[in-house]
Write a structure and sequence with these properties.
- Helices cover 33% and strands 21% of the residues.
- It is an alpha/beta fold.
- Helix 4 crosses helix 5 and helix 7 runs parallel beside helix 8.
């Protein structure tokens, strides 16, 4: 049994023009110690998928699934206090834009200690000791002094480290990192990603890394799920995906990487734009931008096909030959 089981996860939002599916038919298994990368363009549904797992979408969002379970526990049936016992403790999330996620009215130390107070036993002195240790574990120097700092006194990189410290405070078994290096300079990005990778190995956590950066997942993830317009286009081991992508969208993303285009006069791009919520085609959602689409792609939406090593949502998956830059 997988640590996290997701079957046919669908998220529907109300709009003035009627309900719209933001995320559609996501199937996913995550085992203990797994590192899964979720990639795709902005608006592809990466964050919404994991927010649905966490139960953090607005009340007006309709979340349905044939199965959504953590360690065998049905998450959809859990309410109130029972769900909060798992979220934040067993499953934790690092959100985008760390400088806006910390409460500006409270010190760093207070916020970490409140997290521990909610989920862990111990008195105030014990919580303070643990909080200092957590700051040290994420590479913050003078951790005891930083306990008294307010969020506005921290840099972006340090704020992200504090967010990571809060997320791992209760030793979660699954950590979801949503664009953890966004808005940070390149040097700090590398440090944060190295930190997450080290913590994952040290604690044997399952890690879900949400990003639009293919280069990041190539270095960190064991498996990669590529999303487009709310659907999973491809899921396969990282090495296989980068060496021999099976979905035309994945292949197009890889060709657009700068390092794949050395010596070319112009960087390849994917023509067109992601379809809007209300004008998605009846067939394959990628069909209007696909270089190899056929008549069948216009008429019907392809199901997920298990090709062995990969799972691909395509009527005509690419041959499993090495990807050539």
């Amino acid at each position: 049994m997988a640590l996290l089981e997701v079957r046919n996860l669908t998220v529907t939002m109300p709009t003035r023009r009627g309900p719209v599916r933001i995320v559609e038919a996501i199937d996913l298994d995550i085992d203990v110690g797994d590192v899964l990368g979720i990639v795709g363009e902005s608006g592809s549904g990466k964050s919404v998928t994991m927010l649905a797992v966490m139960g953090l979408l607005p009340r007006y969002a309709d979340v349905s699934a044939d199965r959504l379970a953590f360690d065998g526990i049905d998450l959809l049936s859990l309410k109130g206090a029972l769900r909060r016992r798992i979220m934040g403790k067993e499953i934790a999330m690092i959100f985008q834009e760390p400088m806006t996620r910390l409460n500006p009215c409270f010190t760093v130390g207070f916020q970490i200690m409140e997290m521990l107070k909610t989920h862990e036993p111990g008195d105030r002195a014990e919580r303070r000791r643990k909080a200092i240790g957590l700051l040290e574990s994420v590479g913050i120097s003078a951790a005891e002094r930083r306990m008294a700092a307010f969020p506005h006194q921290l840099s972006g990189g340090m704020s992200q480290r504090v967010m990571i410290a809060m997320a791992i405070a209760c030793q979660p078994r699954l950590l979801i990192a949503d664009e953890p290096s966004t808005a940070l300079d390149v040097t700090i990005q590398a440090q944060i990603l190295d930190l997450l990778a080290a913590l994952q190995r040290e604690r044997r956590m399952a890690l879900v890394l949400i990003t639009h950066d293919m280069a990041v997942v190539s270095e960190v993830a064991d498996r990669v799920m590529v999303m487009y317009a709310g659907q999973a286009m491809e899921l396969q081991p990282s090495a296989g995906l980068f060496d021999a992508p099976r979905h035309p969208y994945t292949s197009a993303l890889l060709r657009a990487l700068p390092e794949e285009s050395a010596g070319e006069a112009r960087l390849p791009s994917i023509p067109g734009t992601v379809m809007g919520l209300h004008d998605r085609p009846a067939g394959c959602v990628f069909q209007p931008r696909c270089a190899v689409s056929q008549a069948r792609c216009v008429e019907a939406r392809p199901p997920i096909v298990d090709t062995g090593a990969a799972r691909v949502r395509c009527f005509f998956p690419l041959s499993p030959v090495p990807h050539v830059s």
